[in-house]
Amino acid sequence: MERKQFPGVKAVLVIGASLATAAPAFAQSSVTLYGIVDNGIGYQSSSTTLGSTSGGHSTFKMITGVWAGSRFGLKGAEDLGGGTKAIFTLEEGFSANSGAMSTSNLMFSRQAFVGVTNGTYGTLTAGRQYASYYQLLSLYSPTTWLTGFYGAHPGDVDGLDTIYRANNTLLYMSPQLYGFKFSGSYSLAGVPGSVNQGSTWSAAVQYAQGPVGVAVGFSRINNSTVGGGAFGADSTTSNAGAQAGISAVTNGYQTAQAQQRFAVGAGYTFNSQFDITATYTNVQYIPGAGSAFHSEAIWNTGGIVLHWKPTAAWDFATGYSYTRATKANGITSSAQYQQFNLSEYYSLSKRTGLYALQAYQRANGQTLGTNGRSIINATATLGDGFNSTPSSSRSMVGVGVGIVHRF
Q: Which of the residues 20, 113, 233, 285 could staple to 253 if both were Cys, CB 3.0 to 4.6 A apart?
């Protein structure tokens, strides 16, 4: 639900600087405190409960973490010699409106990992982190300039925003070689008698050279409940036992045995003022014996974002995406979602900015209801900021303004 690619690290506490004489080994160690606070006001034309197709009302409310999810974190590094460093990251999200944790009962819900890195051999990390699929495709995600809150593809069905973090993850990231970078990750669920049930695995490759960039990635998320059904708490993408990514798009398919995502992203920088990115994704929700739905559900999405930076202070972007589901599970008119986005950002300084966002989505066709069997009209749900409060109708308009500060 947030825009990526921030300088982010501003306040550095160098551990051992004052102890260099007594303990020289600590002179190359450091811990960095960083964070983002984002708050604003938003409007949506229709808001109802997930799964409802009636009774929606317009809302006007405070919203937090729109341009960039509010967070604080610690990053550390220690020089081990020979070009190798030990590294760690601990990062927690929070609401700037209430001070509540972004995910209840998780102290570091965004990231919590430790590992080693070497400029020649790459980086190996272990813990709660983003899978390889997201790490190498996020550069071309629509959320970079349109935000995840308003601009992620409907419901973030393809996981190009940051809502899919995987527990118990081993991830390798290669160094860049002739423009290429490779990453692979595997998340262990620890389910007795099975190395697959509840696991998540992912692989991706990226090429970036000069003005051209492209990335290809694949991920599979397995439900730890045998044969599908209620999402198991041991599933590695679990958020304190809850399933991530449930929206009006996927609500009727949350009992899947597995989810698979394939994506291609590309970008081209024309000059310092103008660049373009595009993505294509294919998402599959695969049923098992315990799933409420019986046939594989597939969503194909294509999207494009144009970014224009006319001055050092101003950034503007516009985007469009089209998502279409397959005809399955008795549906004769497949669900379709067309989304249009605009964003404006003004830098007050390197750390502080003002933003405005506008979005419109139109849904058509049919999808499955909450029980995974009944067929209902597809309803609009902008980005992933409205996953739990979608429109009760085919259309939704969203507008937001706010301020973001990085430290």
A: 285
Element (H, E) at 132: helix 132-137
Please answer whether residues 246 and 387 qualify as being in contact, where contact means their C-beta atoms are separated by less than 8 angstroms: yes
Alpha-carbon gap, residue 238 to 244, rounded angstroms: 7
The H or E element that residue 148 is part of is helix 148-151
Domain map (residue ranges) of the chain = 11-19+28-406
Largest CA distance in the chain: 75
SS3 73: strand
CATH class of the 11-19+28-406 domain in this structure:
mainly beta
Coil/strand/helix, residue 251: helix
pTM higher than 0.85, yes or no? yes
Q: Phi/psi at 28 (nearest 5 deg)?
A: -100, 15
Kindly state the helix (H) or strand (E) to which residue 112 belongs, with its residue range: strand 111-118
Q: What is the pLDDT of residues 367-401, one digit of tens each?
A: 999 999 999 999 999 999 999 999 999 999 999 99
Q: What angle do CA 110, 114, 118 make, to 5 degrees?
A: 120
Phi/psi at 27 (5° precision): -65, -20
Amino acid at 16: G
| Tokens matching residue 77 | 């590094």
SS3 of residue 26 by DSSP: helix
- Picking from 1, 241, 235, 245, the residue whose alpha carbon sits closest to that of residue 104 is 241
- CA 148 vs CA 110, 170, 361: distances in Å: 15, 26, 14
Tokens of 251: 């609500």
